[in-house]
Write a structure and sequence with these properties.
The chain has about 300 residues and is mainly β. The chain folds into 3 domains: about 90 residues, Immunoglobulins (Immunoglobulin-like); about 80 residues, Immunoglobulin-like, CATH 2.60.40.10; about 110 residues, no CATH class. It contains 1 helix and 26 strands. The relative contact order is 0.10.
Length: about 300
C-alpha cells in the first residue's frame, strides 16, 4: 500500500479546485455615463474569484464593495453626486481579485451653464448695436422677451465664450424704455435687462447749456450767456446768467456719479427782474448720455440740459 504525504494531498486538492474553476475571469462593462444632476445606475458583473470593487473619486460610490466567487451575475449600484462644476468629470471603478483586475470608466456630464457678464445694458436713444458678453459650455438660444418691437438679436460669435449682438432702434418715445433678453439652454438660462434713454436732438451738442426739443439753443448757451459750474455739498451746480432779459437760472443737485437712464431730482431756481425768485422747484431729470466731461439731462418739457461734470 502506497503512502501519500499530507502536504502532497493538500496541493493536489488545490490544483483540482483551481482546475474546476478555470482561469480567473471578470465580466463587466467598460464604461457607464451619468447626467450632471446626480443619480444612481446599476451594472451587472460576474467574477469567478472572490472580489472587491472601489472608486477613485469620493463623489462616486459603489455598493456592495466585495463579493465571493460565483458564476452568477451580481448587481452593483453606482451612485454619483450632482456635478456642480461646469466641466465633465470622470472616475475609475476597479474590480480586483488576487489574480486580475478590471476598470470601469464613469463619466458624468458637466452642469450646463449660460452666464452673462452684464445684468443690465444701458444705452442712449440712438439706434445702435449692443453686445452681451456671454460665457457658456453649451450652445444656447437668444430670445427677446420684452421689447420685441425695438430689440433684435443679431447673432453670436465664438464657441465656448460667445458675444451676443443685439440691435436696438432709435427711441423717440420721449421716455426711458426697458426690454429683456434671455440666453437659455434647457435648465440653464440668464437674463439681461436693456434700458434705453430717449433720443433728443441736442445729444449731438457738446456745448453746455439749455436746448429745446429740436436741439436748438433754448435761450442759454456758452458764449451767448455767462455759464458757471461749481461744487457744493458733494454735488455740482450749474449757473446761467443772461443780460437780456436779465435773468439767472440755477440748477443744483447734479451728482457726479450718473449713469444713462438714471432719474434724479434737480433743484431749479429762476431769478428775474427786481422781484427776485419767481420759480423754484425739484424738476425730475433723466440722464440721456454721459461722457468723460459732460452729462446730458432731459428736463420736464423735453428740455435738454448739458453740463460739465
Amino acid at each position: 500500500m502506497k503512502y501519500f504525504h499530507p502536504l502532497l494531498s493538500f496541493l493536489l486538492l488545490v490544483l483540482a479546485t483551481v482546475s474546476c474553476q478555470g482561469p480567473a475571469m471578470i465580466s463587466a462593462p467598460q464604461s457607464i455615463s451619468f447626467a450632471y444632476d446626480g443619480t444612481q445606475e446599476t451594472i451587472s458583473i460576474t467574477v469567478n474569484r472572490d472580489w472587491s470593487i472601489s472608486s477613485s473619486e469620493s463623489w462616486c460610490t459603489v455598493s456592495p464593495q466585495s463579493g465571493i466567487s460565483s458564476d452568477e451575475p451580481v448587481t452593483i449600484t453606482v451612485r454619483c453626486q450632482a456635478n456642480s462644476t461646469y466641466d465633465e468629470r470622470k472616475a475609475q471603478l476597479t474590480i480586483m481579485t488576487d489574480e486580475i483586475s478590471h476598470r470601469i470608466t464613469v463619466t458624468q456630464a458637466q452642469r450646463d451653464a449660460v452666464l452673462s457678464e452684464e445684468s443690465v445694458l444701458r444705452a442712449d436713444g440712438k439706434a445702435q448695436d449692443l453686445t452681451i458678453h456671454a460665457e457658456a459650455n453649451v450652445e444656447f438660444n437668444v430670445t427677446v422677451l420684452d421689447g420685441k418691437d425695438w430689440i433684435k438679436p443679431a447673432g453670436t460669435k465664438g464657441l465656448s465664450k460667445k458675444d451676443v449682438n443685439i440691435h436696438i432702434e432709435e427711441n423717440r418715445s420721449g421716455a426711458v424704455r426697458e426690454g429683456s433678453v434671455q440666453l437659455s439652454r434647457d435648465k440653464a438660462s440668464t437674463y439681461v435687462q436693456v434700458r434705453q434713454a430717449p433720443w433728443h436732438d441736442a445729444l449731438d451738442k457738446t456745448t453746455p447749456g439749455l436746448y429745446g426739443v429740436k436741439g436748438n439753443d433754448y435761450l442759454y448757451r456758452a458764449g451767448a450767456s455767462q455759464i458757471s459750474h461749481g461744487q457744493a455739498s458733494g454735488t455740482s451746480f450749474f449757473r446761467i446768467l443772461t443780460p437780456d432779459p436779465p435773468m439767472a437760472i440755477s440748477v443744483d443737485g447734479i451728482s457726479e456719479k450718473t449713469t444713462i437712464t438714471d432719474a434724479l431730482p434737480l433743484n431749479v431756481r429762476l431769478v428775474a427782474g427786481e422781484d427776485g425768485v419767481i420759480y423754484q422747484s425739484a424738476v425730475p431729470a433723466t440722464v440721456l448720455r454721459e461722457s468723460d466731461s459732460l452729462v446730458w439731462f432731459q428736463l420736464s418739457g423735453n428740455v435738454c440740459l448739458i453740463v460739465k461734470k
